[in-house]
Amino acid sequence: MDCTAIQNAAGERLDATWHEAQGQIAMGPENKPYVVVIGHGVTANKDREWALCLAKALASGGFYALRFSFSGNGESEGRFEDSCPSKDTADLGAVLDTLQAFAVIYVGHSMGAAVGVLRAAQDSRIHKLVSLGGMVDTADFAERKFGSLRPGQDLMWDKPECPLSQSFLDDMRTIASVEPQAQTIQIPWLLVHGSEDTVVPLAESERMVQTVVPAPELQVLDGGDHVFSGASSPDMAARVLKWLQA
After folding, report:
1. CB atoms < 10 A from the CB of 122, how many?
2. How far is the C-alpha of 78 from the C-alpha of 215, rounded, in Å?
3. Does residue 2 form part of some domain?
């Protein structure tokens, strides 16, 4: 697939990488092949180690995979200062627009997982959902991690390319939590969370299991951190692939 023409509603090109499925192709509804769309978290991009590891594992298991960076992140066009969950949710919709020949599975990490919940709650084109270290309480996250910083002056996690914006904080606080949208999810849903995640508490995934009906499946990676460092990445990838194949 040609990924160079993916644009959002603002006409910004979204940087994406396509992985060809190998062996027997996994098929979804309407006899369409499955494609797994992989979305990243705040201040990240499609080329994080966990995302590449996951895409390769999925391709080896018969799934097409597409990694992409939300607008303003990585090599995608747009200003980072405009990045926020609402815009990312619209970006994901633009990606889905290009995949009409496929049955879509979405895998989101951290804030990208919250985006997946927001999109899946309104878009029936997502047939299965996977949240990796998934953020639920967006307002709490913004306060914990960036509440002491000055919008327009300070950097998110000291990254020069990631200035904190008021629009990001406002959107995170307006959404507050994706739990209401999560409670409408009816498609198969897997949660994978590291036991040592210090960025998004494991308790947020545990609460989804307790409050969402039907309950998503939760798999906890013992010793895993937020970005699935080291051996946690192949472990996470193997679990996601096994769940999808089952």
Report:
1. 11
2. 37
3. no
Q: What is the CATH number of the domain that holds 203?
A: 3.40.50.1820
Res. 109 pLDDT band, cuts 50 70 90: very high
Could you tell me if residue 234 is inside a domain? Answer: yes
130: closest CA among 169, 175, 66, 187? 187
DSSP string, 62-131: T-EEEEEPPTTSTTSSS-GGG--HHHHHHHHHHHHHT-TTSEEEEEEETHHHHHHHHHHTT-TTEEEEEE
Q: Token pair for residue 110?
A: 């951290």
Tell me the residue range of the domain where 101 lies: 16-133+177-245
- Calculate the average pLDDT of the chain: 97
Domains held by the chain: number: 1
Neighbours of 231 (CB within 10 A): 11
Task: Give Cα separations from 222 to 82, 194, 198, 202, 233 (angstroms).
Answer: 35, 6, 13, 11, 12
Is residue 76 domain-resident? yes
One-letter identity of residue 22? Q
pLDDT at position 3: 74
Gap between the Cα atoms of 220 and 7, Å rounded: 35
- pTM value is 0.97
Q: Let me know if residue 34 belongs to a domain.
A: yes
Structural contact between residues 227 and 50, judged by C-beta atoms closer than 8 angstroms? yes
Residues 211/179, Cβ–Cβ less than 8 Å: yes
pLDDT of residue 5: 81
